[in-house]
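Technical annex B. To support the medicinal chemistry partners, we prepared a structural model of the target in complex with magnesium ion, based solely on the information shown next.
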Amino acid sequence: GSTIGIIGGGQLGRMLAVAAARLGFHTVILEPEAGCPAAQVANRQITAPYDDEKALAELAQTCDVITYEFENVPVEAAQKLVEKKRVYPPPIALEVSQDRFREKAFLNDCGIETAPWQLVNDSAGLAAALAAFDGRGILKTRRMGYDGKGQVRFRGDGSDDVAGALASIGNAPAILEGFVAFTREVSVIAARDRLGNIRCYDIAENVHSNGILASSTVPSAISATTADTARQAAGKLLHALDYVGVLGLEFFVLPDGTLLANEFAPRVHNSGHWTEAACAVSQFEQHIRAIAGLPLGETSRHSDCVMENLIGDDVSRVPEILSEPFAVLNLYGKAEARPGRKMGHVTRLKTSK
Ligand code: ATP
Ligand code: MG
Ligand code: MG
């Protein structure tokens, strides 16, 4: 059988490795942290930094196709691998999604609407951008933000610490986004194969708590027209990136159904975990199919469901979850349940039984 290389050893890599194994592939994980969630279920781990020259050479030598499970893989590392082996998704998807400025500009260039935004390089830039957005908005670092980290909210009610805001994000280059009064947040998980075929899963409705995804519900309460628009946006983005693999695209939904894209992840996505329980082909298998040159699988769901993330101490509820008849549990093999740490998830299928 052939071998798939995965850069990154977290839970997404773990679930990709399981899906790959079920299709008869071997997997090699490149990850500096020994005993990581992905390596526990993979055939092999190369324990080294993501940009380690020797490790990358070894990965290219031992694998037929290489992918990644997080968006902050160094672009140069991915580009080096491209010279030797197939790398999917293409490194341009990393490049764009690693920088919120490039990401927003790329989405807009694809004809995908976002919240209004402005580049912020210094305090004068911040003042000008805030004035343009009536004093309300969210300052976000251009790079390395996740789970709501690297963000400052401005309410425009006199309580904001505008002077201290840039320092609180380490004076990093940033953007200011206008504040979106959304009624809900949704995401689309879409796949594109090597031939350019596209398939989308049903749109999930996402609830965040403290900046971290708490739950995804399918179906979402959005209209069929809004759902169509979301899928079309994903299609445009996938084609523009000449993408191969699975991608997650997040949106805000306005009261009138208008969609504003927030960000995309060039990988399998937390808001697509429900697919393993409610679809014949999960997002993880879909990604492996796409990158391995296999035909894409069915994306329709056989059940309505709610996926709940198990964060930190939530894992103490596992015994009760195990007694629920239609709860599909997935734990990531992380030893320590630190606050804010994603330990697993459970998808509850809605069934009349
Ligand atoms: P992750 O990658 O974990 O999804 P992140 O750190 O990249 O998170 P965002 O997705 O940009 O951050 O923002 C996190 C959450 O903050 C959003 O899902 C949304 O709930 C809220 N949020 C972000 N931007 C805005 C905005 N412009 N207006 C209103 N709410 C926002
Ligand atoms: Mg993000
Ligand atoms: Mg997000």
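Notes passed to the chemistry partners:
DSSP finds eleven helices and 18 strands in the chain.
The mean pLDDT is 96.
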